[in-house]
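Sample intake sheet
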Amino acid sequence: MNPPPPPPQPRATRTDARTNRARILAAAGEALAVSGGASMTSIAKQAGVGVGTLYRHFPTREALIVELYHQEIQKVIDLAHTLAATRPPLDALRTWCDEVARYGQLKYGVAEVIHAATNGGLDDRNYEPFLGAIAVLLDAGSTTGVLKPSVDPEDVLLQLSVLWRIPPGPAAAPRAARILDLVVDGLRPRP
């Protein structure tokens, strides 16, 4: 008797499929940052792919939004570590907060979808890593004395969460900058 054949190996994703997926996610990020109501058809058109291609990668609008969320939040998390290692602590924190504000524009229109997909944040695999990113920046600042010691990263996250409540438009960036000035100023030690 011959042994059974080995199970088939999963096919590697074709280069064009990976490229299309990346283009769809990039187009979705741009479109959803402008309007949380961007349609799948408009995202496909902006990505330069057919609607069928978009739906092969993301069978629902929610699947696209959740994947985009995971991708974008991971970039923000990774950036904290890079900035903490390469910039002075106060500059690292502010630069990172500016990126959180950019991310907030994306989240503004799709927060309800993300909230539902992560069980109100309780099942969000990004929550602890995001808190860890904040802690890295806070620790660097408190070690050098430019930030208050023993600040709870969750308190900072709550302050930052206001950023994804700022409606898109010409006033969004200046408002986010003013809010971040208040947040960062509040983290600095007082004489």
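Comment: The chain has a mean pLDDT of 90. Residues 13-59 form a domain with the Arc Repressor Mutant, subunit A fold (CATH 1.10.10).
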